[in-house]
Amino acid sequence: MTKRIDLVKEFHKKFKVPVLKKPSLIPKNRSDLRYELMKEEVEEYLLGAKNGDLKNIAKELVDILYGVYGTILEHGLQDDIDEIFKEVHLSHMSKDYSKYKMLKGKNYFKPNMKKILTGVSKKF
User: Fold this and answer.
1) Which SUPFAM superfamilies does the UniProt entry name for this protein (predicted)?
2) Tens digits of per-residue pLDDT, 50-77?
3) Which partner from 43, 77, 99, 121 sits 20 to 30 angstroms from 20, CA to CA?
4) 15, 90, 103 from 67: Cα distances, Å
5) What is the pLDDT of residues 82-108, one digit of tens each?
6) Whole-model pTM?
7) Domains of the chain, earliest start first
8) What's the per-residue H, E or C state across 12-62?
């Protein structure tokens, strides 16, 4: 994941898009913008899927990742994202499976973000 985040960081630097150095909340206008960017790419993916356009699907999946990685950078999570991903993965793996659906059964546990993100700014 790090190599791809570095490519998006290069884009952010070129176009003066914020990159925080430590985990932080961001102003509402920035989080709203990040949401709209990702939402637009997901909608474009869906259009490609509905049209059976695999080339467009592939392109939009990368655009979705680009939006996600950019949001990781804006929140300053780039140094912690691999550990966060592993923790969320372990939480997902603790779920039960029943009739094509994942359930939070007796073995389920929530991902422990507190152990990874200590001292996060809550200014916004």
Assistant:
1) all-alpha NTP pyrophosphatases
2) 999 999 999 999 999 999 999 999 999 9
3) 43
4) 14, 24, 28
5) 999 999 999 989 988 877 778 888 889
6) 0.88
7) 2-84 (1.10.3420.10)
8) HHHCCCCCCCCCECCCHHHHHHHHHHHHHHHHHHHHHHHCCCHHHHHHHHH
